Amino acid sequence: MFSRSVWGLVSAATLALAATLPVKRATVCNGHAELCTRLYSNVTYAGAHDSFAFSSDPLALARDQEVDVPTQLSLGIRLLQGQAHMSGSELHFCHTSCDLFDGGSVQDYLTNVKTFLDANPNEVLTLLFTNPEGANVSTVWKPAFDAAGISDLAYVPSSLPVAQGDWPTLGSMIDSGKRVVVFLDAGADGADQVDFILPEFQMIWETPFSVTDPTFPCSVDRINGPLSTEDHMYMINQSLNKNIIPVGAGVIVSDPLDAATTNGVDSILVNANGCAPLGANRNPSFVLMDFVNLGDGFTAVDQLNGLA
Ligand SMILES: *[C@@H]1O[C@H](CO)[C@@H](O)[C@H](O)[C@H]1NC(C)=O
Ligand SMILES: *[C@@H]1O[C@H](CO)[C@@H](O)[C@H](O)[C@H]1NC(C)=O
Ligand SMILES: CC(=O)N[C@H]1CO[C@H](CO)[C@@H](O)[C@@H]1O
């Protein structure tokens, strides 16, 4: 009797205390206090194009990265891009085809990403995947996120599409634990929608890909309605390709020898400034790079965020 009433008092006191304690709030978001109050959509993130296609072998022509995904993340990459293909009955990240470059299963890749997320609870991460074979979003894609433990961390908007000005702040995403944003280029706006797998082009427009012109003339290459261009975020594809066989359609590869220049501050700011007028004079939300360990892309992104 006595002990029960003591415990009753203790727990009532604990509850009262809990009610008066301020809710824990993130004070540093993606490495900077200044970013906590910024909308997710009003931050520029460094992105890794074909993040899975890493190889330190200079003869691996199908590679677009030299360092693995954990290293990309530790350098500061906060958008991971990848292209998925079926390899037998399993979804894999492959470059063009799984015969050319097989980066392993999507589930294993995501499990690796989850390790980073667990170790870095104050980081918001974007995953932007392409689905060229139209793998089923609910029966093929979602199970990979579920098995890796990422589904519970994924941000679910209250309605779609989300306009640029309607995204939450980084701070509130971190506080709520919903700090992974997942976009798919195709198949995510069908009837079998998965609430956290978002249709990319309804919310992000992209500049053209396979660019071979170093002045990066900006144009809105891929976009979907119903939101206006200005109500989208946008991504600049900061990867300059080389046409190594300039005959006919040519053979376009990305070139690590040029990456230091392509990923240089000047080159990125030129590309971003060229696009800003198309994006309501805002900076790009995403700067997608090849060979992210080369050049100075992270300095450029800090500058675009007003941090350097
Ligand atoms: C995905 O799979 C589900 C369950 O089998 C099915 O109902 C749906 O129609 C499929 N979606 C597409 C786009 O094939
Ligand atoms: C967006 O970010 C810029 C810094 O890049 C900042 O000056 C501006 O106030 C922000 N706008 C909103 C609406 O958060
Ligand atoms: C050259 C380049 O980086 N192109 C990529 C731009 O981004 C889209 C996707 O998300 C890729 O499909 C392109 O390959």
From TrEMBL:
InterPro entries the record matches? PI-PLC_domain, PLC-like_Pdiesterase_TIM-brl
* Organism domain of life: Eukaryota
The protein, known as: PLC-like phosphodiesterase
Identify the keywords attached in UniProt to this record, alphabetized: Signal
Q: Name one GO molecular function term.
A: phosphoric diester hydrolase activity
Signal peptide positions (record): 1-18
Give the Gene3D superfamilies listed for this entry. Phosphatidylinositol (PI) phosphodiesterase
